[in-house]
Amino acid sequence: MTHKLPIWILSLALLSPASAQLVSSHAPTAAASKPNASEASQVVAKAVARVNGAVLTDRDLLREMYAIFPYARQHNGGVPKAMEADIRAGAMKMMEFEELLYQEAERRKMTVPPARMKGAEAQFKKQFANEQEYQDLLNTEFKGSKTLLRVKIERSLLIEDMLKQEVEDRSNVSVAQARAFYDKNPDRFRTSESFAVQTISIIPPSNANPEQVKEARKKAEEALRQAKLTKTYDDFGLLAEKISEDDYRVIMGDHRSVDRAKLPPPVLQAVLPMQVGQISDLVEIGNNGYTILRLNAHSPAGITKFEEVKNALREQLKKQKSEELRKALDKQLRKNAKVEEL
User: What pTM value is reported for the model?
Assistant: First the structure.
């Protein structure tokens, strides 16, 4: 099975010469100037952590920060000041976790097949707009050595394989497991009564004089006449876009599904006896206004059927299980490891 190259190795491309230096949590988030390729290649990486003796640098940390905050380019290569400390802390933990995964993969003598390596190299290179951009990064990050780049890509693939083996493959949730969760937690799937409606409203000014109130009534009656002639959702919606004066006119008067408790009393009183597809008479609303309702659906209170939530529930439980497995794996790998943050 082919897997996508991890985002953190892809983020190497973000470390172009224009963003080669780590944004310090004690420095402005935007670089004052952009170094050229030769200047960037002279930047000396600074050690920020050691994991069982392996040195992790500020450049490694920056890649992880970009993985967590992919909008860095929109912030001139930096991250918002208010978010910087949290992003840096999260990136540091993830960077250490990945190094522990890599070391465990080496301990298990895991390898990457040549064909997969070749495909990953090609995938990585596709990120670059042209050969020169690719070569610039190769010179800046790997001293022009494709061998060093391959080592980095292989490392990423081994980390990916470890995660697949220890997390992804073990986090699948069967239909039976999802069903058991559903049966044990009925309240999570309980729904209240709701109504899906469209509206056409005529709303006079809040300080309307008697003549304006009379005119609003006349317009509402004409709107009702036209609404009663509509046969479908689209017919009613197009009329709402044309003559309605409420904010929902821009979306064909559609209020989607509304909980019974959130409907104004006059509206609730009007829709309760209606059948789906039926159009109400004029319903008076605040400030001498009127609305016309089309009932599109009426969902009684109850419990959503398992078949309706099965797929979403399995995915939700899988994500939860995956996160638990990742945390447990991180804890296990750190147990006998020596991790130092400098």
Answer: 0.64
